[in-house]
Amino acid sequence: MSGIPTPPHQKPTISEGKTPGPDERGAPRELTPDEREAFIKARKGRNRAIAFGLIAFAVLVFVITALRLMQNIAAGQAG
Amino acid sequence: MTAPRHPSITQGVRSLPADWRDYLALMKPRVMTLVVFTAFAGYVAAPSGIHPVMAAIAIFALALGAGAAGALNMAYDSDIDATMRRTRKRPVPAGKVSRSDAYGMGLVGSGLAVILMALSANYIAAGLLAFSIFFYAVIYTMGLKRRTPQNIVIGGAAGAFPPMIGWAIATGGVSMEAVMLFAIIFLWTPPHSWALALYKSGDYAAAGVPMMPVAKGPARTRLEILIYSLVLVPFATLPVFTGLGGWVYAAAAFGGGALFLILAVRVFRSRAGEAGSAEEGDLYAVRSGDKAARDLFAYSIAYLALLFAALIAEHGLGAYMSVM
Fold it and tell me: What average pLDDT score do residues B79-90 get?
């Protein structure tokens, strides 16, 4: 589509301004130590969020199962 | 030679991973809030037989599904979002989250939401949730949005499902009352969205989205806003006559509706949309001629909230007193 700029995530955002890499079209390059540290920190945060989400899902399924069991047992005793 | 501790890093990357705030923004939290609110209203208005904890999990599943649908929308629309002032700071066009990550989050979130809904509520609610996600992400976002000025008229159905799903969570089925709540949001969507589009039409035109003001012009849009408002306001009073709404709802529907009509007439008589878009990206920033459209847009949100808050007050807090 003409006239629509390339979305920024398709551009080499990490090299913008300060330390341009060897290939401005977005080819991989070595990170500076600061960028490396920020990358690891951000990735850890994302991994923790995914782990938290999966654990929360498992807990919710457990709670649903327990409630259904209790309801069915109560219904069985009543009937 | 020692092996690199993080081989993927030493090989290089294009951008830093996003943090949790970017992923939250991807789920359109403001839309999620409205979804949860209207779904909760549908749930409390229905004769309920479900355990409250199960209902809470089901409403959470609905919120997750809405957020996942939002992520799919942002992934697909990242190209046009990048061209619009209002949306260019969203996580995908801003380069914080990759398109594939957004798709992944949307698909996984949708799957988990539907599973949770089926387990905690019932298959009818889960089916409606799955269909509403499909409708929003595929029918509206991929199919209608870039093709027809009727995009938000038909696509508005996706946003109208939550109270019906809330009703299905409580009862395991869908009744006329649930369809009525669906129809209120369905009819509310065009005047609400077109009021915004009137003063942001330049953005939509630049992005190539054929919103009504772009495709048919501001005069036709103002007329359509008035027509839909004339249908919406009387329709929103129907719950009073079926017994779903009591005195509180009646006050909201008649009083709030009257103000809605006044603002719609004001838009119709104004020259809103003639001057193009406001320069700044703020949702409520307008040129002086567009003030009527901005006021209707802002009030339309309050009006819908008022109607559903009345239902919550009557059925959830015991304020119900029958009118009929």
Answer: 90
Q: How many domains does chain B have?
A: 2
Expressed as residue numbers, the domain containing B228 is 176-324
The minimum CA-CA distance between B209 and chain A, rounded to whole Å, is 12
Around Cβ B284, how many Cβ atoms within 10 Å?
A: 12
pLDDT at A18: 43
- Whether residues B149 and B282 share a domain: the answer is no
**B1 domain residue, yes or no:** no
Q: Is B79 in the A-facing interface, judged by CB distances under 8 Å?
A: yes
Domain end point (choices B174, B204, B226): B174
Rounded Cα gap, residues B93 and B80, in angstroms: 9
Check B92 against A7: CB less than 8 A apart.
yes
Q: Name which of A4, A6, A9 to mutate to probe chain B: the one with the most chain B Cβ atoms within 10 A of its Cβ.
A: A9
The mean-pLDDT minimum among A37-51, B22-36, B62-76 falls in: A37-51
Please determine, for the modelled complex, whether the ipTM score is greater than 0.85: no
CA distance B314 to chain A (A): 28
Q: Is residue B184 part of a domain?
A: yes
A55/chain B closest Cα distance in angstroms: 12
Same domain membership, residue B229 and residue B194: yes
Considering the domain architecture, whether residues B165 and B213 belong to the same structural domain is answered as: no
CATH of the domain at B41: 1.10.357.140
